[in-house]
Amino acid sequence: MTSRDSELWDAEAEAFDDEPDHGLRDPLVRDAWRALLRSVLPPAPARVADLGCGTGTLAVLLAEEGHAVDGVDFSAEMVRRARAKVAGFPLTGVTVGDAADPPLAAGTYDVVLCRHVLWALPSPADALARWVRLLKPEGRLVLVEGSWSMGAGLTGERTVALVEGAGLVAEHRALPDPAYWGRPIEDERYLVVGRTVDRRRP
Q1: DSSP string for the chain
Q2: Which single residue of 39, 82, 98, 117 has CA 20 to 30 Å from 55?
Q3: Which whole-number Å values give the CA distances from 93 to 74, 99, 102, 109, 139, in the listed order?
Q4: What is the pLDDT of residues 64-109, one digit of tens each?
Q5: Measured over all CA atoms, what is the biggest interatomic distance in the chain, rounded to whole angstroms?
Q6: Do residues 118 and 129 touch, judged by C-beta distance below 8 A?
Q7: What is the pLDDT of residues 122-145, one digit of tens each?
Q8: Given a cut of 80, is residue 55 above it in pLDDT?
Q9: Reported pTM
């Protein structure tokens, strides 16, 4: 990411949470995301890397569930807002850094979570390889992505292929329910969970 990219997202930060799935201000939308994350994350307390965390809404949601969260975002203004949100959670913090190459310790995370970031990276396969290295042996990768009506994004098929190419077993789940987005949608939105392959099995 370039400094210009960072500046563009700094400018977006003020209005970022106005989108229902960004700010999660609607209790119904918030509860939908809470239930979704509960269904794919290990029991608390888990250590979670939230990459491209934006204003920290998901980090707060996870911290409320008892997880320890390390958020990373390359926008200083997004990070400033995220830090204000997570200030009451001593096991959760947010760092300025590139989500594609996060400044986090390898082999220390139960979960690497990334929402709507992979599609925008110049080399998603390289980013996924770095993210997998952050995981503990039994860790999991949780990606929320989409192929949007404006033509941008990644198809679910492509994301599954990328996750499998990173050496993980991929599970795809479509997310068409308006409860996640605050409105009906017409494009493809989904979650992919990547889990390590148990090489001990024949």
Answers
A1: --HHHHHHHHHHHHHHTTSHHHH--SHHHHHHHHHHHHHHSPSSS-EEEEET-TTSHHHHHHHHTT-EEEEEES-HHHHHHHHHHTTT-TT-EEEE--TTS-S--TT-EEEEEEES-GGGSS-HHHHHHHHHHHEEEEEEEEEEEEE-TTS-B--HHHHHHHHHHTTEEEEEEE---GGGTTS---SEEEEEEEEE--TT--
A2: 39
A3: 14, 15, 14, 14, 20
A4: 999 999 999 999 999 999 999 999 999 999 999 999 999 999 999 9
A5: 52
A6: no
A7: 999 999 999 999 999 999 999 999
A8: yes
A9: 0.93
Quick check: 200 pLDDT over 50? Answer: no
The owner of tokens 């042996």 is 137
Rounded to the nearest integer, the mean pLDDT of the chain is: 93
Distance CA 39, CA 52 (A): 21
| Nearest residue to 9 via CA among 70, 53, 61 | 53
Taken as a whole, the chain contains a residue count of: 202
